C-alpha cells in the first residue's frame, strides 16, 4: 500500500451532503476486474454531459481543480455501497485526502486500505476549509498525518483525530494481511477452541 | 458479569486478539462472495501466493451482472459482465469454495441464498463485499459489508480487523395496521434517524412489531440498516428464527442442532445492558410510505405531499432542491398524483416468497396498467420455483407482469434491466440514489404491496385503497 505522510496541494470544494458511492463511481464501471484506471470516471454522471463531453461547471473540470489532491465535502460522504471502486477512482484521479463532517463507515475503512486519508472535522471548520478551497489553485492546503493537522492557505491550522493503528499503517504503507498473518497462532487456537464450543459452524 | 447487548455477546465470542488501542481481530464464520467485489481480491491472493484459509466457510454466487431473461442459458452477452462471472467461476473452482453457478437452481441474490441454504445462523459473524450483508442480522448474526481489500483479508486469514461500534436500540412497539409491512418499518426508521443516524453503531431492532414479523420481514428490516448508516442491524433469534432454520441444507442436525439451539437461546440483550442511542417508534403510527427524493431518508406516508426545500435546514436545503429537480417533482404535489411507468419488484430487500405472495394478493384478477413495464424478479431460483408451485407466477403473468429469473436485476441495473433518463419507477429495492437504476432514472422506494398497487393504477397508490 502507498504511504501517506504529508501532502500540500489544491483542495477542491464539493459542498454536497450524502455524496453516495453511485455518484462517486456509477455501477457501469464496476465491471472491471482491475483496481486501476477508474480515475477518468470519478463522479462520472456529474462530470460529463449526456454526449460524453465534460460538464464545465463541475468542480474537477475547472482548470483550477484539475489536479486537486484534496477534496472538501459535506456530511455523510461515501454512503451507499461497499464498492472499493469508489476509493480506487478517487486515488486514481489523484486525490489522496477527503475532508468532511462525517463519512459512511465502509467507505471510511476502504480509504485507509488504499493510501487515502479521510479526515472528519466539525461543520464550522469544514465551512472555513470550503471557503479556502473556493479560492482556487493558489490556495494550497497542507495535510500532515504525523502531526495530525490540516493547514489552510492562510496558515490557519486545524488538528484532527485518527485511529492510532490506521495512522501507523498509513504512515508506513503496511499491508494488513501480512500483519494479521503474524497472528496465525492466535487464529489457530481460536479455531481449535471453536471446533469444540460451536462445532456446527 | 456485567450486562451485555446481543452485539457484545457475538463480538466477545469471536474475538481472536485485541491490542491496547482497541483494534481487534474478529473471527469470521461465513464469508459470502459475489462477482463484482471479489476479482481483485482473488487476484491479490494469487499475486502474493496465498490460499483461501477456510474454503468450507466461503460461499460464492454470481448475482449482480447476470441477465434475468430466459435466454441467459445461452451465456451472458455483455462482454464485461461475462468476464466478471467467468472470473468468479474460475476463482471458485481454483480455490475450492462453495459455489452456486448461474445454471444452478439455488443461484440467486447472495443475501437470499445464504439464509435459504442455512449458511447464515444465529450468533455467527457474516461478511460479504456488499453493503446489504446487513440482511443476515435478521438471524441474530453480526453481519456487515466490507470492501474488496477486506474481502482479500478474510479470504487469506478468515478474520477481520475491526474496532467495536456503539450499541443502538430501535424499538418498534405495538402492532402494525393492515397494509403496513416490514418495508414501511425500515423506511420509517430511516426517515426518522436520517441516513447517517446509525453511523458508528450496530442497531438492534426489537419490540412487539419486530417479534411479530416473519424471518422474511426481519430480513427486510435488517437489509436497510446500512441505509440508516449503521454498520449492522440485528434481531435476537427466537422460535420464528429456529423454525425457519431447521432442516435447511447447511443447518446443524441431530445432537449438534440441540447444542446449537442451547447456545442460540442465550443470544439476547440483557435487561440492563447499556445503549448508546435509543429510538422508539409506535407501529400503530407507521403508515405505508414511499420515498420522494434521492436518499432513502426522503420518506413520507403515501397520504402526504411533496415537501419544499425550505421545510429543511442546513445542507439538506440544497440537497432537496437538487433532488426535486432530479425527480421532476414540485413541492405541494400529492404523492398519489405521481405517475409511474415502471414497476420493479425484487432485490435482496423484497425478493423473497412472502413478498411475492403479498404482490399476488393485490394483483390477483387485476391487470397491470396499459403501457406499464412491470417486472417481478425472484431473489433466487428456489423462490421462483416455489412461486410457480404456489400458482403465484400464473397470477403475475395473467396480470401482465414479466416473470424473470433470479438476480439483482434493476436494483442496480448492472445487467440489461435499466431505466432510461426520465423514466419513473416504483421499486421494492433499497436505494433511490441518482442514476441507481439507470442514468437519469427516477426511483420511488416502497413495499411489495405498494408496488403492486402502483402497477395496477399507474401512479403511486395507497395500498389500503385496493385491498
Ligand atoms: S439486490 Fe441490489 S442491494 Fe441487493 S445485493 Fe443485489 S444489487 Fe445489492
TrEMBL record, chain A:
One of its GO terms (molecular function) is 3-isopropylmalate dehydratase activity. Pathway: Amino-acid biosynthesis; L-leucine biosynthesis; L-leucine from 3-methyl-2-oxobutanoate: step 2/4. The keyword Amino-acid biosynthesis applies. GO terms for biological process: L-leucine biosynthetic process. Residues 1-124 form the Aconitase A/isopropylmalate dehydratase small subunit swivel domain. InterPro entries: 3-IsopropMal_deHydase_ssu (IPR004431), Aconitase/3IPM_dehydase_swvl (IPR015928), AconitaseA/IPMdHydase_ssu_swvl (IPR000573), IPMI_Swivel (IPR033940), LeuD (IPR050075). It comes from the Bacteria. Keywords: Amino-acid biosynthesis, Branched-chain amino acid biosynthesis, Leucine biosynthesis, Lyase. It catalyses: (2R,3S)-3-isopropylmalate = (2S)-2-isopropylmalate. It is an enzyme of class 4 (lyase). One of its GO terms (cellular component) is 3-isopropylmalate dehydratase complex. Transmembrane segments: none annotated. Its EC number is 4.2.1.33. Heterodimer of LeuC and LeuD. Belongs to the LeuD family. LeuD type 1 subfamily. Catalyzes the isomerization between 2-isopropylmalate and 3-isopropylmalate, via the formation of 2-isopropylmaleate. PANTHER family: 3-ISOPROPYLMALATE DEHYDRATASE SMALL SUBUNIT, 3-ISOPROPYLMALATE DEHYDRATASE SMALL SUBUNIT 2-RELATED-RELATED. NCBIfam families: leuD (TIGR00171), PRK01641.1 (NF002458). This is 3-isopropylmalate dehydratase small subunit. It comes from Antarcticimicrobium luteum. The gene is leuD.
UniProtKB/TrEMBL annotation, chain B:
It is an enzyme of class 4 (lyase). SUPFAM superfamilies: Aconitase iron-sulfur domain (SSF53732). The keyword 4Fe-4S applies. PROSITE patterns: ACONITASE_1, ACONITASE_2. Its cofactor is [4Fe-4S] cluster. Its EC number is 4.2.1.33. One of its GO terms (biological process) is L-leucine biosynthetic process. One of its GO terms (molecular function) is metal ion binding. [4Fe-4S] cluster binds at residues 348, 408, 411. Pathway: Amino-acid biosynthesis; L-leucine biosynthesis; L-leucine from 3-methyl-2-oxobutanoate: step 2/4. The keyword Signal does not apply. Residues 8-458 form the Aconitase/3-isopropylmalate dehydratase large subunit alpha/beta/alpha domain. Binds 1 [4Fe-4S] cluster per subunit. Keywords: 4Fe-4S, Amino-acid biosynthesis, Branched-chain amino acid biosynthesis, Iron, Iron-sulfur, Leucine biosynthesis, Lyase, Metal-binding. It catalyses: (2R,3S)-3-isopropylmalate = (2S)-2-isopropylmalate. Belongs to the aconitase/IPM isomerase family. LeuC type 1 subfamily. Heterodimer of LeuC and LeuD. Catalyzes the isomerization between 2-isopropylmalate and 3-isopropylmalate, via the formation of 2-isopropylmaleate. This is 3-isopropylmalate dehydratase large subunit. It comes from Antarcticimicrobium luteum.
Amino acid at each position: 500500500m502507498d504511504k501517506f505522510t504529508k501532502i500540500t496541494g489544491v483542495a477542491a470544494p464539493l459542498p454536497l451532503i450524502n455524496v453516495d458511492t453511485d455518484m462517486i463511481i456509477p455501477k457501469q464501471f464496476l465491471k472491471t476486474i482491475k483496481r486501476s484506471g477508474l480515475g477518468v470516471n470519478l463522479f462520472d454522471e456529474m462530470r460529463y454531459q449526456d454526449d460524453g463531453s465534460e460538464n464545465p461547471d463541475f468542480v474537477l473540470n475547472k482548470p483550477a481543480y484539475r489536479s486537486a489532491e484534496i477534496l472538501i465535502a459535506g456530511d455523510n460522504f461515501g454512503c451507499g455501497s461497499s464498492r472499493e471502486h469508489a476509493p480506487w477512482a478517487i486515488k486514481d484521479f489523484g486525490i489522496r485526502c477527503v475532508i468532511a463532517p462525517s463519512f459512511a463507515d465502509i467507505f471510511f475503512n476502504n480509504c485507509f486500505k488504499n493510501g487515502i486519508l479521510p479526515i472528519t472535522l466539525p461543520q464550522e471548520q469544514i465551512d472555513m476549509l470550503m471557503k479556502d478551497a473556493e479560492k482556487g489553485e493558489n490556495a494550497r492546503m497542507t495535510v500532515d498525518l504525523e502531526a495530525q493537522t490540516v493547514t489552510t492557505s492562510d496558515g490557519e491550522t486545524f488538528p484532527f483525530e485518527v485511529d492510532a493503528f490506521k495512522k501507523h499503517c498509513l504512515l508506513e504503507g503496511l499491508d494488513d494481511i501480512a500483519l494479521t498473518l503474524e497472528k496465525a497462532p492466535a487464529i489457530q487456537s481460536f479455531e481449535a477452541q471453536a471446533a469444540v464450543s460451536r462445532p456446527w459452524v | 458479569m456485567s450486562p451485555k447487548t446481543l452485539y457484545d455477546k457475538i463480538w466477545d465470542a469471536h474475538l481472536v486478539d485485541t491490542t491496547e488501542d482497541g483494534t481487534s481481530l474478529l473471527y469470521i464464520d461465513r464469508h459470502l462472495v459475489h462477482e463484482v467485489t471479489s476479482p481483485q481480491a482473488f487476484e491479490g491472493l494469487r499475486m502474493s501466493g496465498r490460499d483461501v484459509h477456510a474454503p468450507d466457510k466461503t460461499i460464492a454466487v454470481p448475482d449482480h451482472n447476470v441477465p434475468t431473461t430466459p435466454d441467459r442459458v445461452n451465456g451472458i452477452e455483455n462482454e464485461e459482465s461475462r468476464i466478471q462471472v467467468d472470473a468468479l467461476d474460475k476463482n471458485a473452482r481454483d480455490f475450492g469454495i462453495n459455489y452456486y453457478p448461474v445454471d444452478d437452481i439455488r443461484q440467486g441474490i447472495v443475501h437470499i441464498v445464504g439464509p435459504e441454504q442455512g449458511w447464515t445462523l444465529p450468533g455467527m459473524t457474516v461478511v460479504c463485499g456488499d453493503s446489504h450483508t446487513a440482511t443476515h442480522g435478521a438471524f441474530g448474526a453480526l453481519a456487515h459489508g466490507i470492501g474488496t481489500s477486506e474481502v482479500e483479508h478474510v479470504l487469506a486469514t478468515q478474520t477481520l480487523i475491526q474496532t467495536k461500534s456503539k450499541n443502538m436500540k430501535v424499538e418498534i412497539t405495538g402492532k402494525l395496521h393492515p397494509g403496513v409491512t416490514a418495508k414501511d418499518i425500515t423506511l420509517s426508521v430511516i426517515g426518522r434517524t436520517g441516513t447517517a443516524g446509525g453511523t458508528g453503531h450496530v442497531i438492534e431492532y426489537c419490540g412487539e412489531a419486530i417479534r411479530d414479523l416473519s424471518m422474511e420481514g426481519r430480513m427486510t428490516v435488517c437489509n436497510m440498516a446500512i441505509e440508516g448508516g449503521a454498520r449492522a442491524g440485528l434481531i435476537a433469534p427466537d422460535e420464528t428464527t429456529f423454525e425457519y432454520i431447521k432442516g435447511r441444507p447447511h443447518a446443524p442436525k441431530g445432537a449438534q442442532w440441540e447444542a446449537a439451539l442451547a447456545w442460540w437461546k442465550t443470544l439476547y440483550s440483557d435487561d440492563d445492558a447499556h445503549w448508546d442511542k435509543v429510538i422508539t417508534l409506535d407501529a400503530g403510527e407507521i403508515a405505508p410510505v414511499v420515498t420522494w427524493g434521492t436518499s432513502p431518508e426522503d420518506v413520507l406516508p403515501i397520504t402526504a405531499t411533496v415537501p419544499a426545500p425550505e421545510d429543511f435546514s442546513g445542507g439538506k436545503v440544497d440537497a432537496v432542491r437538487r433532488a426535486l429537480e432530479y425527480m421532476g417533482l414540485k413541492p405541494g404535489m400529492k404523492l398519489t398524483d405521481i405517475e409511474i411507468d415502471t414497476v420493479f419488484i425484487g432485490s435482496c430487500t423484497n425478493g423473497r416468497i412472502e413478498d411475492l405472495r403479498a404482490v399476488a394478493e393485490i394483483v390477483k384478477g387485476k391487470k397491470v396498467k396499459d403501457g406499464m413495464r412491470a417486472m417481478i424478479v425472484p431473489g433466487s431460483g428456489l423462490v421462483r420455483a416455489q412461486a410457480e408451485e404456489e400458482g403465484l407466477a400464473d397470477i403475475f403473468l395473467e396480470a401482465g407482469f414479466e416473470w424473470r429469473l433470479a438476480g439483482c436485476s434493476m436494483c442496480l441495473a448492472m445487467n440489461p434491466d435499466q431505466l432510461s433518463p426520465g423514466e419513473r419507477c416504483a421499486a421494492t429495492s433499497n436505494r433511490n440514489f441518482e442514476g441507481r437504476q439507470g442514468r437519469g432514472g427516477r426511483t420511488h422506494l416502497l413495499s411489495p404491496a405498494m408496488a403492486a398497487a402502483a402497477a395496477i393504477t399507474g401512479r403511486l397508490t395507497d395500498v389500503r385503497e385496493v385491498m
